[in-house]
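Budget justification, computational time. The allocation requested in the original proposal was used primarily to generate structure tokens for proteins on the priority list. As evidence of use, we reproduce two of the resulting records. The first is shown immediately below.
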Amino acid sequence: MRRRKLGGELRRQRELAKLTSLEAAHAVGWHQSKISRIETGSSGVKSSDVALLLDAYGVSDPELRALLGALCGAGTADAEGARRGWWYAYRNLLPPAYLDFISLESEASRLRTLETTVVPGLLQTPAYARAVTRAALNDPPPEQVEKLVRVRMARQSVLRGDRPLELCAVLDEAVLRHEVGGREVMAGQLRHLVETGSLRHVRLHVLPFSRSGHIGITGPFVIFSFPRIADLDVVVLDHLTSSLYLERKEDLRAYAAAFTTLRAHALSHENSLDFIAGINGGA
């Protein structure tokens, strides 16, 4: 999926530069067949090669260059010593699918998610993340838990800074009712949801049990949207042992429509924050 999307965008940039694939190959000292393989997504490409092509095409926009770098695997460094993603230090601990997810998340401009069982990772407290990790990995060694919790907390940096990620989450009421880690941990997590929900770029919508009967139309999912390039949107479905990435326009339309429907059935953002605070107050 990534190779095809990256290849398509590199082809578009080449065409904007008014270069043929043969001319582009000559500009960077490659065979034309390598350009063709990259643009069709039939072969992988290093971040250093992407940078070389973008230089040849006169692409100087740092935001676009960073996004295309993420598509080719931003967790690694190229031969010129390009800056590694912060998660590089955890590359031996995290599965490739999780590294892919993190790199996409770090470059996305908007994230829409439906959660039916747990609080989204970007909104978790350390204590809640610790309890979820222990449960998911069947009580792993404490040092592994702490490393994974540090990764989850570091991920939340996308909600801060000059251009924070726009996050819209639909939460089934069950997410708020499950006492993950015990009552005290859950109380802290609910307080954190209300506090984070006050950020202008975070919108929370609770689906009360009275309205969530239709939630069976789908399971949890995430929709990533990216700046500048609309057709890079992707849907991610998590399974027990892997993640599934959907890129077809029909899939994107279906999940976008499902999210819109679910949000329409959910409480407003303001009423959702009151609802969460009410649960915490009655705990």
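The second record produced under the same allocation is shown here.
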Amino acid sequence: MQGTVDGFSYGLVTPLVGYLMACLGGALGLRCTTRSMLVAHSWRPGWLALGSAAIGSGIWTMHFIAMMGFSVQETPIRYDKPITFASLGVAILMVGIGIFIVGYKGASGTALFTGGTITGLGIASMHYLGMAGMQLNGKLEYNTFTVAASVVIAVAAATAALWAAGQVRGFLWSVGASLVMGLAVSGMHYTGMAALSVHLHGTTDVTSGDSPASLLAPMLIGPLAFLFLAGVVMMFDPLMVMGKADWSPAQQKPGIPAHMIRHTGRRPTSRPRRRPDRPGSRTPQR
């Protein structure tokens, strides 16, 4: 028996709120990635880890806010809590691998392709692992072509966002990149949901697990509190807000701004030159 699937039970409320969460996480994460390119190597892992957690929390929150509007008319839906929160860990871990590659190797060439691919696969893995934690009186089936399209969207969006973060062109540039990333994450989510069909078992067994309402509180309190704290950290960092667009490309290594190269804090000492002796310039001996 085919189940009647509705992905917009609350109208446009859940898609819009989910999109804003994806944009918020993307904005914080991309700005942290940009900031990591302006500091010494000792500080860089901290900023990259903060950016990974922000992006992972943002896309995870977007997914489950959108899932609040998902329902199957013939059966109640429950969620397995360990699998649900394991999807958050997978998102942060795989996004972190991609961001660390770009943060240390630069947002170009092979590093950008590798980092964007891993980050996109992390977004897709979070989505489908979160769907695996959904329990109902039926079986979930996916259209292979549509699933592949959702993964391509995730990889392309992640690659474009990491490229934008590596350009270091100021605050507005990162805001635009985060809006695009939020749109792509939402598009990937609903493309993946379009691939879903539910085949009911025909029995009335009550499924185990937690209801969406019981997951709502930790979903909002935990990741949103973290995103708020990450925003506070960046708000009090002037380089994160102002940014610069005129760094000199004197140093070819990624992540080292030119002002750190030009101003070293001390001037080189110069030795006085010795003038060569010229014939006839000596004082005559008496």
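A brief technical remark on that second record: The CA atoms of residues 169 and 246 lie 8 Å apart.
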